[in-house]
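seq:
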Amino acid sequence: MLLGCAGGFSFALMELPLAWLLGAMSVCLIATFCGLSLYKPGSIVLSMRAILGVAIGSAFSPEINERLGDLSHSLLFLLPYCLLTGLIGYAFFRTVAKFDRPTAYYAAMPGGFQDMVAFGEEAGAKIQPLALVHATRIIFLVFTLPFLVRWIEGLETENAGLHHWPDFESLIILFLCGGLGWGLAKLLRISGSAIVGPMVVSGLAHYLGWVEATPPKAFIDLAQLIIGVHIGCQYQGMRVKEMASVIFISFGYLLILGILTAAFVGLVFIFAEADPVAALLAFSPGGQAEMNLIAFAMDIDVTYVALHHLIRMVLVIVGAQLIFKLIKRFA
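struct:
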C-alpha cells in the first residue's frame, strides 16, 4: 500500500490520467519484477469494487429512457464481437501458442480475470499461462487506454463532479445501495457480485430519483489506489524467464484484439451513431471494473460503457461454458 501511495502521488504530481490507479499499478509491477515479495490486497478490493459499482450506477438517471433506442442498436454488436474474439483467439492459442484445448479456449475468452481462471481450472486448463494471458491483457489495456483517450479527446483526468461531498442523507443512501446490492448479488450467486449488485441497486435508486449524489472523489481515489495495487501484484511469484514467452504470445493476441475492437468501434460509429471514444471503452476487452473506472473517472458516457460491459460479462460467463462443452463433444 505504501508503494501504491508513492506511485499514485507521483503520477498525480505529473498530472497523468487516472494517477492513483496507474501509479499504484506501475510501482507494484516494477517492485514485483525486481523480486520484492508483495501480497495482493484481500477482501478490501471487493469493497472498493462496491464503491465503484455505486458510482457507476449514479449515471443511470431518468434520461436513459431517451437513449434506449441508440443503446439497443449498439448492444446488438456485442454478441458477434464476443463470438469472433473467442473463435479467433482460440485458433491463435491452439496454433501459435500450442496451448492445450481448455487453456487455449479460456485464454481467448474476453471475460473477467477471476471468472476465466476459475472456469479454466475446472475444465483442466494450465493455470499459470491462463492467468498470465488475462493479467497481461488487463494490465496493458488499463495502462494504455487512459493515455489514448486523453490523446484523442484532450479530456480532463478526473470527474469534476466528484469534488463535492454529498449531504449526510445522500451518503447513507449510497452506502445502503452498496451494501444491499452486494449482499443480494452474492446471495443470488451473481458473478462479479461486488460491482454488479451495487451498480444495479444504485442505478435503480438514481433512476427513480431517490438520490442524485455520487460517491465523493476521495472514495474514488481510494478505489483506484487499491485496485491499482491489486492489478500490480498479478505477476507475484512468477519468474521472469518463465513469463517471457507467454507474455510475448499475449501481445500477439492483444494485436488481434486491437484490430477486432477497432473494426467494431467503426461499425457502431457508422451504424449505431455511437461516440467513438465511448465505444472504444465499451468494446475494449478489459476487466469490467477497470474499464468502468476509466469511463467514470474521465467522464465518458458511463451509462453506455457500463451497460456494454455488463452485457458482455453475461454473454461470456453464460456462453463460455456452453460452447466449451460443444467443442469437447464434437472436436
